[in-house]
Amino acid sequence: MPDHAPHLSPDEFRVLGHRMVDFVADYMGSVSMWPVKSQDNPGDVLTRLPESPPEVGLGASESPADAWGEVFDDLTRIILPGLTHWQHPAFFGYFPCNASGPAILGELLSAGLGVQGMLWQTSPACTELEMRMLDWMAEAFGLPACFRSDARDNGPDAPPTGGGVIQGSASEATLVALIAARQRWRRLQHERVRAHENNTGEIGLAVEAVGRQFAVICSEGAHSSVIKAAMMAGIAEGPDDDERVWQIATDSRGRMDIAHLRSVLEERAADPARPTPIACVATVGTTGVGAVDNIAEIAAVLRGSNIWLHIDAAWAGSAMVCPEYRAMIASIERADSVCINPHKWLLTNFDCDLFWTRSRHDLTDAMSITPEYLRNEASESGTVTDYRDWQLPLGRRFRSLKLWFVLRHYGLDGLRAHIREGVRLAEMVERFVKYDDRFELVVPRSLSLVCFRVVGPDDLTTRVIDRVNATGKAFLSHATWPGPGGAPRPIARLAIGGTHTREEHVRAVWILIQQATDELR
Ligand code: PLP
Known about the structure:
By secondary structure, the protein is of the alpha/beta class. It has helices at residues 10-30, 44-48, 64-67, 69-79, 101-113, 124-141, 170-200, 224-232, 258-269, 295-302, 342-345, 360-367, 377-381, 400-434, 458-471, 503-520, and strands at 163-167, 214-219, 245-248, 276-283, 308-312, 337-340, 353-357, 439-441, 449-454, 477-482, 488-495. The chain has a domain at 170-312: Type I PLP-dependent aspartate aminotransferase-like (Major domain) (Aspartate Aminotransferase, domain 2). Helix content is 41%, strand content 12%.
């Protein structure tokens, strides 16, 4: 039994680290040789893994660096076959999940520094680099000044009101927005009650706020994470709770139907017996078809209501690095919060969701709690940002490093080139679909997402997708879209924008789609 744990020495780590970097570089260079979608069946990876952990580890051997050879063998034997290769250039499913060399180096460094950035004091660089990166990205996307960390909506000498933070995912960002929305509703309610009491001397109005039921508004095209967030926040009772999640119909292009939003609000919000709407989540780039809700019109309907407007731009938001796509977010200054995932389409490894708010105190009021062991002078002084109060967990990784490296390596010019190439390739596919009468474009292309169906019986599109995916040479995913009678029909989604995707890969998948269609028709 060793009397101390067998740590890797810095030199042993160096040897293995170089080897691991070689492994990753080889993987990047050879990923296109793998079938895109894992060919494993359920349980296959489990059967390749031992049932119990090793009692004596490789670190106990004479030369751990040599002994680790078996780990590298196992990576190739056990893990790689069980991967769906998201970085494969012919991965066109869901939305891309961009990894890139600079971001991978940022991840390595983050792990190597081993920092836990819950408070400013626990690593000032972790907090302040993140603040600066969120301001850089706000500028890169053309976001209004109210979302910057130095925004002071209440006057130049008042505390800052805006700012951004890295969340793990857009789902977390939505949950945080709902929690902040509820907090703001309560704050405004208390202010109203206090004003009433002061003006009239009457007390008792506060009872109105007790046991209040809340509701969240989104469109039928919004991501399921909105309903999930409402469930987790204790607002909705379950996924089908349409009394507390008001799903607004979508128009012929998949956007929130403004007339329906207006009528739902008029009918329900006026009824005191119904839950109070506290938040509306608008989507810029829906998951199914990439539809972009009209922020200006939604904000106009919500005006004066105190409903928190959160913009979920998880995928499409990255395109705003290009000024020509910023029309999508016109009127975003009227939103209370917005999120964008560089981990989808902006060359920054998962996990990296950027979340901005113009109302940081509603977040921190809802999520700040300070037990004695977290008290410190810097936090008490009120001059620093403690990001633990802007998110669900206490602990946090040093995620801004990877974003910093991405920005320094690619520059905004390089990021714009990546986005524009994705859109250019999607325009090419759009033309392929339009000029081939075997296919039908169901909605207009959205940025780098093309949604189409195969002309013929509804299941033909699904069968074509399955056949293409079974070749292992490409991967597509599906969604549904209303057919002529309004019933949902399957559609194919070709989501372009992978780090390594080039024109040749897009042309090749189109040939596969044509071949599968001819074989199945
Ligand atoms: N919102 C939209 C519009 C999405 O497309 C997605 C995922 O594709 C999400 C939210 C969820 O993203 P995340 O995995 O970051 O929670």
